[in-house]
Batch of 4 targets.
Target 1
Amino acid sequence: MQIDQGHNPRERRAPRPLDRARLDELALAYVARFATSAAKLEAYLKRKLRERGWDGDGEPAVAALVQRYADLGYVDDEAYARTRSGGLLRRGYGPRRVEQALAASGIAEEIRETVRAGAAAERAAALAMARKRRFGPFGPGVADRAQREKQFAAMLRAGHALDSVRELVDAASIEAAEEWAASAEEDYRA
């Protein structure tokens, strides 16, 4: 039995350095696969350039490539922000946590302001988290002090306002919690 000494199948070849065409292919594949912001696409391309190197003429025009994709509509920060904030709110995250996630994605302050949730959406998110995590009246019974403090802490970490947390965790019943959440819609309409 003869063993091949020249090639180890577990060894990886170093990836080829990027040129303009390969950088464009990477960007297109990324925006085709992921909903992304312009800042996230730029960070991804810069990371790939650090990992693989540059083999093109002059400096890589990452910012111009990202701008071209934004002009073509492949990258839309406002649509990304609206989708991301809606998803986080539906999962029960509060407005502060949504704001942090959008800022981390490189969304501009003006766009974050336009997609900021209203009182009704904030209360619905708090209610969704309480229901999902079985906090307050959604739990199996009356929470003792330590359990109540843990519920408070979890909701505050999720980005909810202290007043909202207090209303939900201390709600007398599920109906009272749901009425509290629905009352924001009535206040909004008035």
Target 2
Amino acid sequence: MNRNFLFAWYETPRGKLLKQLEADYIQRSITVSCQQTILQVGGLGWENEFIDCSLYKHFIILDAKNRGCEEALKIQAKASYLPLKSDSVDMIILPHLLEFDAFRFQTIREVERVLKPEGIILVLNFNPWSFWIRYQYLWDKKMADSWGGHFISRSRITDWLKLLNFEISVCSQFYLDSVVSTSGKNNLRKHLFSGTAYAVKAIKRRYNLIPLTPIKSRNPSLVLAGSINSPAHKKKHD
């Protein structure tokens, strides 16, 4: 995994704008209580811009190189093998991780495993159709050499999540000065090439199958019509 392209992009003028937009967006997207567990896979170093670690005591950053703000709890481990129990995390944030992860399919499965039912996942990626991202990637040799990743479209991310029984709740696209969000997988194709990055927020659903037990057939007992109120029955009781 090599995320040098990401950190170098954040130092550019457009990257600084994106960084601020993403910080505000993540802060608004954290809807779980401060008593619940939030896991961020992939450290950024400026997490204190979107979360108060003194309030969220169970905010954890997992990073292979131990990146992340000093105030947060940290776990140094690989994203494809999360050292956490199944169904133990309430929210997981993946900030520009999957596009640099050679084992991203395994990482997605691990995220689904440790996330609680009805838990929230938030994925942020670069927009693969962005003119500015492509231009920076091709023009700057140093950043291009440090790329070591793959552009992933928003539609592909949503398809992966749906295969793992996630329900897409919000899709967002980041422009230079604004964020446009829609519910579910509604159209965000307007000005697709000008968007720098996108975000997908989804909820883990767990559907339990209810087994249908066969009903045992019973032989109904025959009752003669009018036998209870027949005159012979009345005389017998009299």
Target 3
Amino acid sequence: MDFKNLLAYKKSFELAMMIFEVTKTFPKEEKYSLTDQIRRSSRSVSANISEAYRKRIYPKHFISKLTDSDAENAETQTWLNFSLACNYIDKKTFDNIIALSYEVGNLINYMIKNPVKFGVKD
């Protein structure tokens, strides 16, 4: 299996692309702060999932990269909260994006708790 077929990867990639699109409307003065931060953290979720999958022959590395991915997802949620508080996104958009972020978090945690199902050897 290729990492691109993992549901967690697919959903995290979808999340990063949603964030990319919505941040296009953020104020210009946020370009080098909030916009960059939320784009970076959201993209890092997918990147860490792909790295974890490649390191699945090393159980501790697999778990470590997935916990990094989970942490980046939490950071993304924090930036989403700032985006809502600053009125850069409306509540409906926030709710849609944050729901997908929670789903991604659940998928990552499933992988962490069930590494054998992803090719990790005991």
Target 4
Amino acid sequence: MSLMNKVFPPVDVVLQMDPEELAVPLLECLCQFEEAKSTGMLNRYTFTLQSNLQAYAQDNYDAIAKTITEAWVWLEKEGLIAPAPGHQTGDWIFITRRGRKFRETADVRSYRAATLLPDKTLDPKLASKVSPAFLRGDYDTAIFEAFKEVEVRVRTLAGADKTDIGVNLMRKAFHPENGPLTDNTQIASERQAISDLFAGAIGSFKNPSSHRDVDFNDPAEVVELIMLADQLIRIAERRKH
């Protein structure tokens, strides 16, 4: 089902989604099938057959089929799809007028953008913090959570106090002369550069989100910032004693 591959987020992301979240790409799929007159796919039983999910679900068939069914039932409950007239069972559906209106307002782009986030290569804890927000298109929160995780990780690795926060924490942890996470094998200018890197990143991307709304609209830019947070975590992890 190549259409599902294009519209749905990656399998591991789908399995973390609530029914109302997965309902958006599911409705988009159903609308496109209806427009293409692929009416055979407008059936809950057919849609979730293993043969139709094989390319997408792979080894997660049972879990993905149940997750899609939950989203399908949510669409029915909200009146976005309805039983097709002239069929004996309710498994055959059509997209309602309300469903068409919902499709126009739903931010399908944010779900498609989820494929940009390489969450399988991210630090696992970081991925768990940023993926849900990124998937919803809540990019400000995703960035805040990413750099908050940097702050938490640095504080833990440096053995700092809970009162050590933000830029001051970074300056303390990576102090060029006596920082607990400073690599003394590096020359002085490089140690200072690392301190500046961490302090600058936290000051630029974590602190502003703490104090005011920061408008990030480009998912590609957000992915780049999350990747920066991931790299900072990797650097900090390598410095632990």
